[in-house]
């Protein structure tokens, strides 16, 4: 395919200068059919070719892998199959049928897990932080003073989520709440 500059040059010679196809061939050095093709062309985008569906050597084992991964949805997270574990299990249980390497199994397991877990995590709760609201936390902590003695202290933290601002105050001692009766 010619560059866009060459195509524009051919079209300008034809449309603006009024050159014939033979004259354009002589000036540009391109063949008649090439010049004619670019003069007749309306859409200069490359046609997108869809990839052909080629059967995989893993196809006979995909239903088995799918079943294992679907059962993993009910299992604790640490006990689920990894791609490597799926491959090793296929090697042990179906040695004659497994004709692919680890990387092919990894691609398929990754794709399948994205499908399975995407269905599970579709909903969400929007996080909103209205102006003027704050979050308060009062907790205990331990620290070393100047004489390297371990001391207990209290900490008050007030955070403002909308502005990401915060205020923190540390107290050395625990005080009692005094309630005044009026």
Question: What structural keywords apply?
Answer:
15% strand, single chain, alpha+beta, 182 residues, three-stranded antiparallel beta sheet
Based on secondary structure, the structural category is: alpha+beta
What percent strand?
Answer: 15-25%
**Average pLDDT over all residues:** 87
Give a count of the beta strands, DSSP E runs of length 2 or more. 3
Label the overall shape: flat
Compute the number of helices: 6
| Rg, Cα atoms, Å | 36 Å
Largest sheet: 3 strands, antiparallel
Return residue spans where pLDDT drops below 50 for at least 5 consecutive residues. Answer: none
- Sketch the topology as an H/E string, one letter per element: HHHHHHEEE
Q: Trace the largest sheet across and list its strands.
A: 1-2-3
Distance between the amino and carboxyl termini = 93 Å
Describe this structure in words.
A hairpin with a 5-residue loop joins strand 1 (about 135-145) and strand 2 (about 150-160). This protein is flat. It is built from six helices and three strands; from the N terminus they run H-H-H-H-H-H-E-E-E. It has helices at about 5-15, 20-30, 30-40, 60-70, 85-95, 100-120; strands at about 135-145, 150-160, 165-170. The relative contact order is 0.07. It has a three-stranded antiparallel sheet, with no helix packed on it. The model has no long low-confidence stretch (mean pLDDT about 85).
């Amino acid at each position: 395919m010619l560059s866009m500059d060459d195509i524009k040059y051919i079209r300008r010679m034809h449309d603006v200068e009024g050159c014939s196809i033979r004259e354009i061939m002589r000036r540009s050095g391109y063949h008649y059919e090439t010049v004619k093709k670019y003069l007749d062309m309306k859409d200069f985008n490359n046609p997108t070719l869809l990839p052909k569906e080629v059967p995989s050597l893993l196809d006979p084992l995909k239903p088995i892998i799918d079943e294992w991964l679907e059962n993993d949805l009910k299992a604790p997270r640490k006990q689920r199959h990894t791609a490597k574990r799926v491959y090793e299990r296929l090697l042990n249980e179906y040695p004659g049928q497994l004709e692919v390497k680890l990387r092919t199994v990894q691609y398929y397991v990754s794709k399948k897990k994205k499908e399975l877990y995407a269905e599970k995590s579709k909903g969400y709760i929007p996080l909103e932080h209205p102006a003027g609201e704050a979050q308060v936390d009062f907790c205990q902590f331990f620290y070393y003073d100047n004489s390297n003695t371990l001391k207990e202290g209290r900490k008050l933290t007030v955070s403002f989520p909308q502005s990401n601002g915060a205020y923190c105050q540390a107290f050395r001692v625990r005080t009692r709440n005094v309630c005044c009766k009026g």
